[in-house]
Write a structure and sequence with these properties.
Blueprint (H helix, E strand, L loop, with lengths): L2 H10 L2 H6 L5 E3 L15 H21 L14 E3 L1 H11 L6 E6 L10 H19 L15 H7 L3 E6 L2 H13 L2 E6 L5 H9 L3 E4 L4 H14 L3 E4 L5 H8 L1 H12 L9 E6 L4 H14 L3 E8 L4 H8 L28 H7 L5 E5 L1 H15 L13 H7 L2 H5 L2 H6 L1 E6 L7 H16 L1
Parallel strand pairs: 3-11, 4-5, 4-7, 5-6, 8-9, 8-11, 9-10
Antiparallel strand pairs: 1-10, 2-3
The protein binds pyridoxal-5'-phosphate.
Length: 443
């Protein structure tokens, strides 16, 4: 992007100046006020179909991943009310937070330890199912635990899978691919943590490392995969299957809401806050929630100050034609799961009419919340997973809450913060991050 174009963008969108200066910002999407047309790219039927597919695979998953035995192979996370964190924010901001504050604990999702278990596992399983059915080795009426047999592993070993990742998607796809017997290659960006690569190599997954950012790792992976026979590339930037996998979270949440007596209706709006990298996970989940709960759902995405790609893409309408580096943001963040410089245009266009806003959070703030969450709620999250937790405060302080919801709606609201990763972080690393947060909080 040339200087002239950049200057005119900055004149049109003064928020860019603050973003460049490293400030935390909140962008409200004015378009949602006049949104009439439904552009959500998936239907409720498709979400239900995806959920049914995951249920068909449950007996297989329970066989190959012993940690999922207790839930019969259903990969799901708990829902918690986090009243201590709510009080923390109320004290910090000297203001009462109306409604209730919940945490959807995807950091506890088994196998992958992150939200990527939803999309990544789903796309690999769907691909495996298609291959097996096409080759007359499986029918949807059968018990899928047969996929764990030596014969089936030998069949899948003739095929390869590839993906580009900052760490967690690679972990999800690598673990699932290896469990089925696929030859799996993960192209890791420079952000990927050492332990994630080690974990994959221990499972026989090929990990190729790049000195460069996520977009480059994806590009290289895509090119190499295209040259490899029988190779399937999982495309985080464009995949509808990943998106669908993520969206199934909405059906599961509906069940959990029912069990916990949490109502979503005109008097009880649901406001969800989702950490965003390239956009697939938050986009899929938000779209799923819109399909399941309808107009009473509101949503915000959260990004690091150093990686506000979706905010830039949505605000300017340029989607993947703009990267944070274009405006001089260097993409230096400890929130590796969100270290993406260019957003998915597929996701940006999908949510452009419905998403209520995007806000950014500094790395220091992420570490402070990481420490508070561990101390007050006993939940250990990785930095990326804390991007959304300040959402209710942002919604309030930006004026969005008061202008979009009546007083009784604000009182009846459920604020749902999505936690996206952390349970597989090695103990020593978690300890160091908690200490870092403690120091920052004391300052
Ligand atoms: C990948 C990831 C996200 C965001 O998902 P995208 O699909 O990249 O937007 C959020 N949190 C964590 C921990 C992640 O690994």
């Amino acid at each position: 992007m040339n200087d002239e174009k950049l200057n005119s963008l900055e004149t049109q969108w003064p928020l860019i100046t603050e973003m460049k200066a490293g400030e935390e910002v909140t962008w409200l999407n004015e378009r949602t006020l006049k949104a009439e047309t439904d552009q959500l790219p998936i239907t409720l039927e498709e979400i239900e179909e995806a959920d049914a597919r995951l249920r068909r695979f449950a007996p297989f998953l329970a066989t190959v991943f012993p940690e999922t035995k207790a839930t019969d192979g259903i990969i799901e996370s708990p829902l918690f009310e986090i009243a201590h964190m709510k009080r923390f924010f109320e004290k910090q901001h000297n203001e009462k937070m109306e409604g209730r504050l919940y945490l959807k604990a995807d950091h506890l999702l088994p196998v992958a330890g992150s939200v990527k278990a939803r999309g990544g596992m789903y796309e690999v399983l769907k691909h495996a199912e298609s291959l097996a059915i096409e080759n007359d080795l499986l029918s949807t009426e059968e018990d899928y635990s047969k996929l764990a047999s030596d014969e089936m592993r030998a069949f899948f070993s003739r095929y390869s899978l590839a993906v580009g990742s900052t760490g967690n998607l690679g972990l999800s796809i690598g673990m699932t691919g290896a469990a089925l017997g696929f030859q799996t290659t993960v192209h890791m960006s420079a952000d990927a943590k050492e332990w994630k690569k080690r974990r994959l190599r221990d499972r026989g997954v090929t990990v190729i490392e790049y000195e460069d950012d996520y977009s480059r790792a994806v590009e290289e992976g895509r090119v190499l995969s295209a040259k490899t026979e029988n190779s399937f590339f999982i495309d985080d930037e464009h995949s509808k299957e990943l998106f669908l996998g993520y969206s199934t979270a909405a059906l599961r949440l509906q069940e959990q809401f029912r069990e916990n007596g949490i109502i979503v209706d005109a008097d009880h709006p649901l406001i969800v806050y989702l950490p965003c990298g390239v956009g697939g996970a938050p986009g899929g989940i938000f779209t799923g929630l819109k399909r399941v709960f309808g107009e009473h759902v509101y949503g915000f995405f959260a990004e690091p100050v150093q990686a506000p790609c979706m905010l830039l893409g949505l605000m300017t309408g340029l989607h993947d034609e703009i990267a944070v580096q274009d405006v001089g943001i260097e993409l230096r963040t400890e929130a590796d799961g969100l270290a993406v410089g260019r957003p998915s245009s597929f996701v940006g266009k999908a949510v452009a009419n419905d998403l209520d806003g995007v806000f950014t959070v500094s790395d220091d703030t992420l570490f402070i919340y990481l420490q508070q969450m561990a101390a007050l709620e006993g939940e250990k999250l990785e930095p990326s997973a804390l991007a959304g937790i300040e959402g209710p405060i942002r919604a309030k302080e930006s004026g969005w809450l008061d202008s979009h919801l009546t007083e009784s709606q604000r009182k009846g609201a459920a604020h749902l913060v999505w936690s996206t990763g952390g349970s597989l972080v090695p103990e020593e690393e978690m300890k160091a991050m908690i200490e870092k947060g403690e120091h920052l909080y004391a300052e």
